[in-house]
Each structure stands twice: as structure tokens, then as C-alpha cells.
Amino acid sequence: MSARETARRAVRVAGFGAVTAGYATPFAALDAVSRESERRELRDRWVGRWADALLRLFEVRVEVEGDARPSASRGRVVVANHRSTIDIAVLLRAFGGCVISRADLSGWPIIGFAARAVGTLFVDRADAASGASAVRAMRARLDANDTIIVFAEGTTFSDDVVRPFHAGAFLAALHSNAEIVPVGLAYEKGSGAAFVNETFPQHLARMSAADPTRVAVCIGEPFDVPPKARAAALRDRAQADVQTLVDRARKRVDRIA
Q1: Average predicted confidence (pLDDT) for the chain
Q2: If 198 and its partner were Cys, which of 35, 128, 202, 253 is the partner (CB 3.0–4.6 Å)?
Q3: Residue 226 half-sphere exposure, CB side, CA atoms within 13 Å?
């Protein structure tokens, strides 16, 4: 590793800790805000600033195609492919809301505390009881007109192939007035952003030394839950839409690069 990469790593690792801890501390005060709508507004404002600060720190340049603004005051399920820890900051900055995350993230250094503070919903996909509890929690958020961000593949992958989706978020959407928003993400080739076969500290250290990178975000047309819909049909439609958007995002980021 060059001296430049070593210095970059040191600055970014320290910055990650400072930024995340700095924003996570006031998140704990959200419970003191009585009105739920005001809590969500504050949460989205703070989380957006945190995400923006991290993306600037790691020099991740985001190119967005499509409209992230809600069409009405209603719940939204934002569903995307999952390639990197960076995805979380990218989508939180664009959409706000809360993330459905793998259970072990709650114990990760620094970011685990921040995730818990902003109301991240954790699910252990290998545990049926955990999955059922997560579905109930998602339904409650959607009924309160909140936005939930779901990486329905269940884990990260290193390529543009969208793997089969889990159905939990779509079960939660069945009996709400929520809309489903498909999103496709693609990173610049050679970025090394993928989070695969490494621990979070290893991923953080590697990405902290990396060159600036670009990510394309293609937001699709939201769709409603039809009457008498089945979760499997919603899941399959969302997966097909996300794959189309990933292919579009790949072309966009390659053209930009």
C-alpha cells in the first residue's frame, strides 16, 4: 500500500467514526419528540446529513435517474439490489426512512449503535420467529406512512445479477396502502465496493484506502399492491423490475466513467 493510500485510510477510518458517532448521539433524543411525523422528519433530516457526509468522505459520487420523492403521504417499500455497505448511505440519502438489516449489523463497531438509534429493523432470516416479528414491525411502519428500505436478496453479491428475493417485505405490504418502489444500483467497474467474504472492519479498511468511485442509482416507477395480491407475485414483479433497473444503471455508470 502506498503512503497516499495509508494516509487516506487513516483519515477516512477516523472520519467514519467521528461522523457516525457525532450523528448517532442526538438520534437517541428522537424518543422525546411526541408526534410521530415530527420524529420521522427529524430522523430523515439527520440521517440524510450523515449519509451525505459519509459519501463525501469516501468520495462516492452518486448519479441518480428517476424521482425519489413520495407521490403521496403513504407508506413506501423501497426495494433494491445489494452490493456494498455504501448502498445504505446512498438510499437513505435519497429516500429517508429506515432500513431492514441483517441481525448481526446491530453488533458492528460504531455503525451498530447508530443503526439501533435510528430505528433500523433487524431480522435473522434463518430464524422464523425473527422473520415474523420483522414483518409485523414493517407493517406497523407502513401503516404509519413511513418508508422502509429493503435489500430483498438478503445479503450482498459482487455482480449485477439480481438473486431471488425474500418475501417478508411484500407480506408486510399486502394489507397496507403502501407503494413499492424498485431501485437498481451499479458501481463503477474496478471500484471494489462489493462487500463479499470479508468482515465489516476489513471492508471498512479496504474501502477507506480506495480511489473515488461512482454509483448509478436508477429509480423505477412505483407500483401499488393490487386487490387480492399475493406476496409471491409482488416479490417476483419487484425482482424483475430491479433487474431491469440494474441493467440500466450499469449502462449509465459505464457511460459516465
Answers
A1: 87
A2: 202
A3: 9
Here the cell at position 87 is 448502498
Residue pair 67/94 in contact (Cβ under 8 Å)? The answer is no
By C-alpha distance, which of 72, 74, 125 is closest to 102? Answer: 125
Classified as helix, coil or strand, 34 is coil
Residue 168 is part of which domain span? 3-256
Condensed to tens digits (0 to 9), the pLDDT of residues 72-126 reads 788 999 999 999 989 999 999 999 988 888 777 777 767 777 777 667 778 776 7
How far apart CA 173 and CA 117 sit, in angstroms, is 24
Whether 53 contacts 157, CB under 8 Å: no
**Domain total in the chain:** 1
Question: What are the φ and ψ backbone dihedral angles of 186, each rounded to 5 degrees?
Answer: -145, 130
Tell me the CATH number at 217: 3.40.1130
The answer to whether residue 33 scores a pLDDT higher than 70 is no
- d(CA 257, CA 154) in angstroms, rounded, equals 29
| pTM of full prediction above 0.70 | yes
Q: Which helix (H) or strand (E) holds 193?
A: none
Amino acid identity for residue 156 in this structure: T
Q: How many CA atoms lie within 13 A of 139 on its CB side?
A: 13
**pLDDT > 90 in the chain, percent:** 43
In whole angstroms, what is the distance from residue 156 CA to residue 163 CA? 10
